[in-house]
Amino acid sequence: MTRINHIKLGLLSAAACMAASCTGDFDSFNTNPDAVQQIDVKNYITTMERDAVIPTSDEGANEYQRACNLMGDTFGGYFAPIQAFNGGSYTCTYDLDGTDYNNVPFSVAFTNVMPAWLQLKYAHENGQITDDIFAVAEVIRVMALQRATDIYGPIPVSHFGETENPYESQQTVYENLFRDLDAAIATLTEYATNSADAHPLEKVDAIYQGDYPKWLKLANSVKLRMAMRIRFVEPGKLTTCTHLPYEPFQFEQGGRKVGFDVDLVDLVARDLGLQQKLLDAPFEGIQSGEALNMRQCDLAAAAMTINDVRKRNMDFSDPYFDADQALLVRAGAPHPDLASLRGKVLGVQLGTTGEEYARAHQGEFGYRVRQFEDVALLESSVQNGTIDAGINDNGVVRSFAKNHPDTRVTAIIPTGEKYGIAVQKQNVPLRQRINATLAEAKRSGEYDRIYRKWIGAPPPK
């Protein structure tokens, strides 16, 4: 009888346990360990960091070493090892088959970093993580992808995670990386200023434990490394070839060189941490590419139209200004168009698209062409009656007529021209930096401000 009571007591105790504290582990006992679990998406930051920017294990250290020291740094153009590894026969000595390192930087970027970044991107779009956390992810992504594109050139980036993800040129990759890094820096700057003591990534950030001021410094260092891919004529300066005067784009005012192009290139110099230096050069030498090829300057900004002939001699940025040709005459002169100039003298500036247009239609309209070295001589010759009319870009002659009421613009000749900033052939990093600055200026409103300042009207939409 006693034994039966003991059994009953044991069963009752077990039941009480199940009904009370033992049910605390019910969820863990009844969760399928193989099923998809709810996780903190911030953990993907750790995944992005591992072996891409910091070695996290013995195995990871080897992966990091291959991706960086024994392959990536050399072929990315960052550093070169001095040790005689593997008997002096390995990837960095061009024994590309001697060690299986050739694909490691690509593999690290596209199997460690990008899939984790994609999950963070989705989380950001769905409001699961804030801008600051995604900004950190963007910095890590840019670091990994810059190394990959510097090594391999074209890589598949923009459509990662989609059904089709084609390879893109290094130019396109760099432009996008500059854009994304600028956005991340802007976000981190705000958080580092206003919430420096907040560390939402403290438990998942293996590098800085969520210290945003440190992440901001790293982001700016990455941007500097990208900018260092660009060569400059004079250290600390961004030397710009231009041709003065060409008001309102570049001219002297109060002893200073000012204008639309000057302000625009100042933005590029600012983003590169440099100071713009202006070099007045003959326009013929600028538009032929000679000034760039002789390394007189880093870029050319001279209200210069992009065309096929010039593109053979230099590379251009994205267009930044739309232009047509215009006819300048003395006030009261009976010359409303080119057809009225038969037997008259039409002035042109050497090497310009205005000269090209005038000569192409000379037989049609029967005028004589007189060539001038710069637009100031052309405009003053119209003003004093030495020539009957002049042709040049509409923005320039309109500005002159506005300031000199004894002249007027009588015709706008639609030519659909677009200005671009020129760099030496194959100077891809500088061209990409210019494009990124132009895009950001248009996004932020700085471009509109410059346009209104010098043109006196908002830019056309």
Structure in words:
The protein contains 19 helices and twelve strands. With 461 residues, the chain is α/β, with parallel strands linked by helices. The strands form three sheets. Strands 4-1-5-12-6 form a five-stranded mixed beta sheet, with helices on one face. The chain has a five-stranded mixed beta sheet with strand order 9-8-10-7-11, with helices on both faces. It has a two-stranded antiparallel ribbon with strand order 2-3. The N and C termini lie far apart (98 Å).
Architecture blueprint of SSEs:
Layout: H1 2-19, H2 26-29, H3 43-49, H4 58-67, H5 72-76, H6 104-125, H7 131-152, H8 170-194, H9 212-227, E1 237-242, E2 251-253, E3 256-258, H10 260-272, E4 275-280, H11 283-287, H12 290-293, E5 299-300, H13 308-311, E6 315-316, E7 321-330, E8 345-349, H14 353-360, H15 362-365, E9 368-372, H16 375-383, E10 389-393, H17 394-403, E11 407-419, E12 422-423, H18 428-444, H19 446-455
Parallel strand pairs: 1-4, 1-5, 8-9, 8-10
Antiparallel strand pairs: 2-3, 5-12, 6-12, 7-10, 7-11
Uncertain spans, ≥5 residues at pLDDT below 50? 1-24, 26-32
Beta strand count: 12
Structural class: alpha/beta
Through-space gap between termini: 98 Å
Descriptive tags:
461 residues, 5-stranded mixed β-sheet, 46% helix, 13% strand, elongated, disordered N terminus
In short:
By secondary structure, the protein is α/β, with parallel strands linked by helices. It has helices at 2-19, 26-29, 43-49, 58-67, 72-76, 104-125, 131-152, 170-194, 212-227, 260-272, 283-287, 290-293, 308-311, 353-360, 362-365, 375-383, 394-403, 428-444, 446-455; strands spanning 237-242, 251-253, 256-258, 275-280, 299-300, 315-316, 321-330, 345-349, 368-372, 389-393, 407-419, 422-423.
